[in-house]
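[step 3/7] fold_predict: job queued, chain A
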Amino acid sequence: FQAEDGIRDVERSRGLGDVYKRQAESGVRVNAVNPGVVVSNLHRRGGMQENAYEEFLEHSKTTHPIGRVGQPKDIAEAIIYLASSKAGWVTGVTLSLDGGRHLTCAR
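[step 4/7] structure written:
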């Protein structure tokens, strides 16, 4: 089953490549952001108690090499850049906005 899954993934990525190419030819750029831990209400709305959330944020500082968790402004500024003409040659990118966490083994 794993080999078949891999083949399907390759087929999907080829298909996505075709989609990206058609979009780019039309002047449409397709990018994504992949944030790490960012201060928000997500966990609280999911039922996490305030003290547990504060502990989670403190621990997350140790799992992000930059030594802090993200702020909404960190993500917003990157999205504004990707949407701007300054990123006119950027397409097909997934931007990791995680203080370097993607470079480490999650702890």
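[step 5/7] annotate
The first strand starts at residue 32 and ends at 35.
Residues 2-25 form the longest helix (24 residues).
exit 0
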